[in-house]
Amino acid sequence: MDPPLINETSFSAANPSSYTLAEIWPFPPPPPPPTRSGLRMDNLADPDGSLEESTLTDQSSGNGTRIRKTRDFSSEKDDSTKIVSTTTSANDLNDSNGKRRKITGSGSVKDDSRAETEASSAANNKSAEQSSKASEPPKQDYIHVRARRGQATDSHSLAERARREKISERMNMLQDLVPGCNKVIGKALVLDEIINYIQSLQCQVEFLSMKIEAVNSRMNTSTTIEGLHPKDLGAQPFVATGMIFSPQPTREYVQGSQSEWLHMQVGGSFERALFTGETIHRRGGFQVCNTEVLQWIRVSRTDMQGKKQQPYHGAEQLKWRHRNHGSRKISRHGGDWKEMKIRGEKIVLEPKFSAENVFCITKANGMWSFLMSILVKLRGWSGWIHRNPPSPS
Amino acid sequence: MASKHTIATRHAQGIRARFASRFLRSLLRLRRRSNRFGGSQSNDEGIGKRIRTDRIKIAAYASMARAVGPRRTWSRALLFKLRNRARIHGVSRKRCLVSEKKRVTRNKVVVAISREPSRADTLRKLVPGGDSMDTCVLLEETAHYIKCLATQVTVMQSIADRLLL
């Protein structure tokens, strides 16, 4: 953990008047170490991992100095417990916390001196260790880190290795959560995907609130909302029907008539875009996070007079041009470049559109966030976002 | 494994139902309020629309955070932010200026230490309350936040679809 560990508890202590105690602190005060096993059992019982992290962070902030004192010292790790710790990933922070509390020995610990470390550790931890040895392995509240041959065995590098393992476990967890993230290799790219996904979800929330607002203000009778029951909404399947992309022939992407495509102007056509959004919604817009595709963009091409033109085909580079700023590159991924122009108030995106090129823009990492930020900044427009890819038949 | 999965889905469904009921309630409240003040807002349509959109968005986030409850760091931070938003708006600009100065100095210190913002910092900005987390906690909170956001999006989508019908 990084040293400046500031939590909500610390700043609720700073101004306690702003919180009711029950809201900010739903848990009993951090229990003394002998009772921590019960907490651990609770955590094991909750596989979703929803409860334990907050308690743990709170505890670690409460006992921050002590942990910081003891965290530098190394620990050991059996291979069996390593497997266990990877399987119970939600429990991992707990384990590490316990580990930090447990180890009070100093200096580098090797495999032979393990018994000594246990002897020097606190008695309750020792008993916990013995009981966990006797019974199931997942009840252990710390990780043994064993240095392999050739690895550094001093305390700092062992602790760092344990930390890296934890981080990689969480990255794996996140990779399962974010769609299309499994195929991405590399921590930075995975983080990029995660960031893009979160941004797309937030933009989606914004767009949906806009939509709800439009509907809400259009209807004067307040019967409809009351007619909705949250039970019905809760019972709906996860993929809402509106999100499902109805497959269209690819020709439509190639040449399709520009009538209801995103002909976006800053001022006026927002209404139109919103209300024709139902048809657009099923056809185009942004494609978020399926396997390969991050997004695909379909925007009408307009010249300066506002006359519609054929979609742009031969773009080799993805640039964005502003009338004032000239042109510059935004992003590149895998050699796919597209072009995007901003002319005055009109945003014109000109992606290559053919059966295979629909997906090209999708690979442009960072493009998503860039585009969304422009659109949102200009007038809160956030696009149409889909779960499922268009089938390029 | 199967039991784990069912428990997890039940948990998500509970959050979804709670979020949906809260969000619908706040929508009703918003609508009543807009009906009450309908005449005054009609003169400036664009601004009124933006304000209403922002309100709905804030209501969505707030009801999500309330549905999750104070167990999570991100929901606590979100609730804190939403709760103090009114106060910050209401009190004065003095505080804002002070915080601006502080932020400036802090940024200078950070710059002096070095390093341009990494991807984890970008993630910190996205996840509410992420400034005060270390990387492990940040990743866990991100996972939960993503789940909740996806739930929120589906619920809002279905509400919008129902309203349109």
Automatic annotation (TrEMBL), chain A:
Q: Which residues form the BHLH domain?
A: 151-201
Q: State the name under which the record lists this protein.
A: TRANSCRIPTION FACTOR BPE
What PANTHER family does the entry give?
STEROL REGULATORY ELEMENT-BINDING PROTEIN, TRANSCRIPTION FACTOR BHLH089
Query: Which Pfam families does the annotation name?
Result: HLH
Q: Where is composition skewed (Pro residues) in this entry?
A: 26-35
Recorded superkingdom: Eukaryota
Q: Where in the cell is it found?
A: Nucleus
Residue ranges annotated as compositionally biased, kind Low complexity, are 118-135
Q: One GO cellular component from the entry?
A: nucleus
Any coiled-coil ranges, and where? Answer: none
From TrEMBL, chain B:
Chief location of this protein within or outside the cell: nucleus
Q: Cross-referenced CDD domains, in alphabetical order?
A: bHLH_AtIBH1_like
Alphabetical list of InterPro entries matching this protein:
bHLH_AtIBH1-like, HLH_DNA-bd_sf, IBH1-like, IBH1_N
IBH1-like N-terminal domain location = 17-85
Q: Which residues form a coiled coil?
A: none
Q: Indicate where this protein resides in the cell.
A: Nucleus
GO MF annotation, one = protein dimerization activity
Instruction: Report the record's Gene Ontology biological process terms.
Output: regulation of DNA-templated transcription
Would you name any one GO CC term?
nucleus
Q: Which UniProt keywords apply?
A: Nucleus, Transcription, Transcription regulation
Position of the signal peptide: none
What is the protein name stated in its UniProt record? TRANSCRIPTION FACTOR IBH1-LIKE 1
Identify the species of origin: Salix viminalis
Taxonomic classification, please? Eukaryota, Viridiplantae, Streptophyta, Embryophyta, Tracheophyta
